[in-house]
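Holo prediction — adenosine-5'-diphosphate.
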Amino acid sequence: MSTETSNAQPSAPQSGGTPVIRFEDVEKKFGETTVLSDLNFDVAPGERVTLIGPSGSGKTTILRLVMTLEHLTGGYIWINGQPLTHDRRNNQRVELRPKEVAKTRKKIGMVFQHFNLFPNMTVLENITEAPIHVLGRDKKQANDRAHELLDQVGLGDRSGARPSQLSGGQKQRVAIARALAMDPEILLLDEVTSALDPELVGEVLGVLRNVAEDTDISMLIVTHEMQFARDVSHKVMMFDGGQILEQGKPDDLLSNPQHKRTQRFLESIL
Ligand code: ADP
């Protein structure tokens, strides 16, 4: 497992064609409070996009909308050209049937700040639960894949452990393996190292660097780890007040931000 950083920027995936995620005029209100408005951007297949910005600027809400943990109050999110929660037949907003949403949802994996492992299951069971019960894989096939993924995240010897027996970094590596076990096309990473002791951050970012290098999974990443953002992202977007303030290649935006607000934000997290 490599935790080394590199100066090489990832080269951008081919653009053109159907975006894997399209945000179209997305709006999200909680009650009377507007958290996101007029949000428009695309994620290309294989593209890794990092969202940065001050606390409360709406970054986590964006990931939760894609994961259908929150519902839109306006606009559309399209996954591979399919509407996530609404269709626009006859220009009407039509709620999709749960089955249609579930089919799209299977393509999306998420890793949370607080791991969210099932405490009463072993590491292996945590990873095989959804492949068996959601994808209908047989147990042997799911177990084989889980062991392979545990080896990849450096936890080949912990398959029988319970989450309570693991360090935070180990729990997060299990959560990454669990998300990958669903063979996602899209991986959402929500401040996955924020709850970790500083000495455990490197092992988790090392695993994610390998995932970025070895797969073509599209990623939406929320992180305060700017070196990681620089190393793995094709694009960084700075959010403020629920809107995109500026966006660009990581080296351009992080080394040479155009907005004072971005400069101040980057200085504040150094
Ligand atoms: P960030 O990830 O950039 O810190 P969030 O997306 O978590 O921002 O939050 C954006 C805003 O939405 C914040 O003001 C937050 O208080 C509000 N918010 C998030 N979730 C809820 C909720 N379930 N109910 C009410 N307000 C919420």
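READOUT: The pocket of adenosine-5'-diphosphate is lined by residues 30, 35, 53, 55-61 (CB under 6 Å).
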